[in-house]
Amino acid sequence: MRLRDITVRARVLQAVRDARITDIHTHLFSSNFESLTLRGIDDLLTYHYLVAETVRWGVTTPEGFWKRSKREQADLVWKTLFIDHSPVSEAAKGVLTVLNRFGLDTSSRNLDSYREFFDGLSAQEHTDRVFELAAVDNLVMTYDPFNEVERKTWQQHPKLDARFKPALRLDAMLNEWESTEDYMRFWGYDVNDYVDIKTCREVRRFLEEWIDCMDPVYIASSLPSDFAFPDASARSRLISECVLPIAEERGLPVAFMIGVKRRVNTALKSAGDSAAISDLASVERLCQLYPSNKFLITMLARENQHGLCVLSRKFSNLMVFGCWWFLNTPSMIEEITHMRLDLLGFSMIPQHSDSRVLDHLIYKWEHSREVIGEVLAQHYEKLAATGWTVSDEDIRRDVADLFGGNFWSLAGRQAQ
Ligand code: HDL
Ligand code: ZN
User: Fold this and answer.
1) Which residue among 24, 139, 222, 329 is best mutated to probe the pocket of ligand 1, counting the most ligand atoms within 8 A of its Cβ?
2) Looking at the domain assignment, is residue 281 inside a domain?
3) Measured between alpha carbons, how far is 326 from 301 in angstroms, rounded to an integer?
4) Residue 368 lies in a domain
């Protein structure tokens, strides 16, 4: 390999390692939401990804797992996935990356020593250290106005930690309207189950009030694998008559995360969701019919990734983002990032972390930077092979676009 190629590779890997990140989708909470904050080793070990992987070994039934205390659950996960079998899955390796980055000795395999370390960290100090180790500048949270605890906290108008940006999450409205409309009626919105004109007016009022209260950077919802648009469902009318008009008016992107099959195994609770191939034609129609709306789209099925990239070439109001959930593994990130660079160049958002536990920011971004850096290096090496030279500024500009710039320009804001 020519000297210049080695420097290209080294410069790209360094630029990705140094990149400051806006993490556009997480389930983390600013410390104002103390009771909802997950952090430390027991929360890491009882992450629903690891619950599913533990129960697979037949060491307990799901019911038997849930009956245990969180500490006992963590003990069982640790024994099953780390002691009785080597922890090679992405989520298990992630726990070790976190421990290692905090300078803990993973070779000791001493779970109680890790507990002692995390018990010594205040929420604030823990948050600061994680942001520093992960080199994340800010992240977007998922706020669900239909979650009682979140609702109550928002209504006290909390002053958020500036690193935490809200997104208004509408799964309950779009995917469970039959039950959600009861809540909304109870809260004083004159709605009914067939989403007539009056209901649309009231739903728009609800959205306006929450947008005024939360100042979200986007509106979001996951959508089931059988999502179809438009159709005769309440969801379609809520999207076309309420969500998209308000989002357009407020200049807010709409993030649809498509392809989940919720609770295929109900006994596993939050670990019981699965994935399935979804209808790309519905995404096509959303972009076609609503050219003034800005769509952030990620899909859960590996089989949908290529078609989604092709659609993104056709519609500049479609920004593809992330390797979501079961696609957030090194092998899938590599495949999908190559595909996106080949088809979209730098006009896409390669990753979000989906972190649920504060410490996830460390491993999810370390693992993603490694894979995305390697993929980018190969693409720049191909440029170098044609005689095209890139300055360090070129590389840093491209990397900054991927890890925050593209999002903030889509959102029409600066990352303050
Ligand atoms: O719907 C979502 O936002 C998903 O990310 C789910 O929260 C899922 O449980 C998850 O955490 N995936 O990483
Ligand atoms: Zn998520």
Assistant:
1) 222
2) yes
3) 8
4) yes
Q: Is the CB of 114 under 6 A from ligand 1?
A: no
Top mutation candidate among 29, 258, 273 for ligand 1, by most atoms within 8 Å of CB: 273
> What pTM was computed for the model?
0.97
pLDDT > 90 fraction of the chain, expressed in percent and rounded: 94
Give phi and psi for 151, each to the nearest 5. -55, -50
- What's the farthest any 2 CA atoms get from each other in the chain? 70
Domain range for 368 is 7-38+137-411
Q: How far apart are CA 255 and CA 253, in angstroms?
A: 6
Percentages helix, strand, coil for the chain, rounded to the nearest 5? 60, 10, 30
For 93-112, write each residue's pLDDT tens digit. Answer: 999 999 999 999 999 999 99
The residue type at 215: D
Cis peptide before 230 (omega within 30 of 0): yes
pLDDT of residue 281: 98
Residue closest via CA to ligand 1's atom 1 equals 222
- Ligand approaching nearest to the C-alpha of 175: 1
Token duo for residue 93: 């390796």
Q: Measured from the CA of 48, which atom of ligand 1 is nearest?
A: 9
Domain count, the chain: 1
For residue 263, the ligand closest to its alpha carbon is: 1
From the list 10, 9, 12, 7, the residue with the least C-alpha distance to 396 is 12
Question: Is any ligand 1 atom within 6 A of the Cβ of residue 270?
Answer: yes
CATH number of the CATH domain containing 324? 3.20.20.140
Q: How far apart are CA 147 and CA 192, in angstroms?
A: 20
Asked whether residue 6 carries a pLDDT value surpassing 90, the answer given is no
Beta bridge partners of 224: 260
Q: Is the distance from the beta carbon of residue 49 to the nearest atom of ligand 1 less than 6 Å?
A: no
- Euclidean distance between the first and the last CA atom of the chain, given in angstroms as a whole number: 42
Report pLDDT digits (tens) over 109-133. 999 999 999 999 999 999 999 999 9
- Asked whether residue 293 is domain-assigned, the answer is yes
The identity of residue 177, as a single letter, is W
Q: Is the CB of 278 under 6 A from ligand 1?
A: no
103 in a structural domain: no
Q: How many Å apart are CA 103 and CA 98, to the nearest integer?
A: 9
Question: 259 C-alpha vs ligand 1 centroid, how far in Å?
Answer: 11
Query: Counting atoms of ligand 1 from 1, which one is nearest the CA of 325?
Result: 13
